[in-house]
Amino acid sequence: MQVFTDLDQVPDGFGPSAVTIGNFDGVHRGHQAVLGRLVHLARADGLAAVAVTFDPHPAVVHRPESAPELLTGLADRLDLLAATGLDAVLVIPYSLAFAAQDPEEFVTRYLTAGLGARSVVVGHDVRFGRDNSGTLATMVELGGEHGFEVVAIDDVGECLAESAGARQRWSSSAARALLAEGDVAQAADVLGRAHRVRGTVVHGDARGRELGFPTANLGEIAGMVPADGVYAGWLRRPALAESDPGHPDVRLPAAISIGTNPTFDGVERRVEAYVLDRTDLDLYDEEVVLELVEHLRATLRFDGIEPLVRQMHDDVARARAILG
Question: Which CA distances in Å does 7 have to 4, 58, 264?
């Protein structure tokens, strides 16, 4: 999949294309359905399948004090978009100046002149251009003027099994709510995959190593961090996957801790992963991805080291059973 972060990077004569527009935070099952429809239509008509997305999220620019916590950072969003079969993604740097364009400016500059759009796939509630003044009717009108077909798709959000008495939908907000509760298994139903966070491994307090459970501590993290607790999951190594895809250490089973280490009176919230039964790994300064599969327990304060270590052994055993 080609990734363009500026219109100047789009090759001359690119297209013709089928294009869709969205934030695609989390690339959840609803997004996947839209993008699957786009790819299918593009293949049938001999067009390039292209998604236009934004970085940062528009809410961060317009209302930073109330912007939602993003499910995925840009690197993971692009990985997930690539998995849908897209040919290209245009990542538009979102700013107030960009938002000030009127709907026709946006369409002509980015969709037709920039990407050679012949088909534009959007939801019935699409909004674009200054003050979100562009609607589906606007897009259809502009399509008639500038030579592209508009394909309007129905809401693809499907109701999930009842959770806590309420029915959830395939949406970024539903996934965020579940992750805030630590329910990574139900969030996976919305996302269509295990939730992931990404970060570079940094030095910690080395307490885990002293206790026989050396952990990879993540520094600055991209992706929404779920509620405090202990989780079963996987540690994935993107650089190793790229250099040696068949290496057995590309994806490793892990017990993942999120919290402040209350037994040691910690105050800093940390995300750390113990790769099951491995004490030989040197992951410092390596970027890793953690995939959270199942919540094992809440974060607890223990009265001393011995009960903590007993619990850690139990956590590892449960994680091993869950991950197989």
Answer: 7, 19, 51
Give the pLDDT band of residue 148 (cuts 50, 70, 90).
very high
Answer yes or no: is pLDDT of 145 > 60: yes
> If you write DSSP's letter for every residue of 127-139 in order, what string do you get?
-BSGGG-B-HHHH
DSSP assignment of 39-94 equals HHHHHHHT-EEEEEEEES-HHHHH-GGGPPPPSS-HHHHHHHHHTTT-SEEEEEE-
- What is the spatial distance between Cα 145 and Cα 149, in angstroms, rounded to a whole number? 10
* pLDDT 10s digits, 265-308: 666 889 999 999 998 999 999 999 999 999 999 988 887 788 88
Q: What order of strands is seen across the sheet that includes strand 117-123?
A: 2-4, 88-93, 48-55, 17-21, 117-123, 149-153
Bridge partners of 51, per DSSP, are 20, 89
**What does 115-129 look like in DSSP terms, one character per residue?**
T-EEEEEEETT--BS
Unique residue bearing structure tokens 């139900």: 186
Which DSSP category does 99 fall into? H
Q: Average pLDDT for residues 18-31, to the nearest whole number? A: 95
Per the omega criterion (within 30 degrees of 0), is the bond before 56 cis?
A: yes
Distances (CA, A) of 248 to 19, 67, 244, 255, 294: 38, 39, 9, 18, 23
Residue type, 59: A
Distances in Å between the alpha carbon of 108 and those of 14, 105, 136, 145?
15, 5, 16, 10
Mean pLDDT of the chain: 91
pTM beyond 0.85: the answer is yes
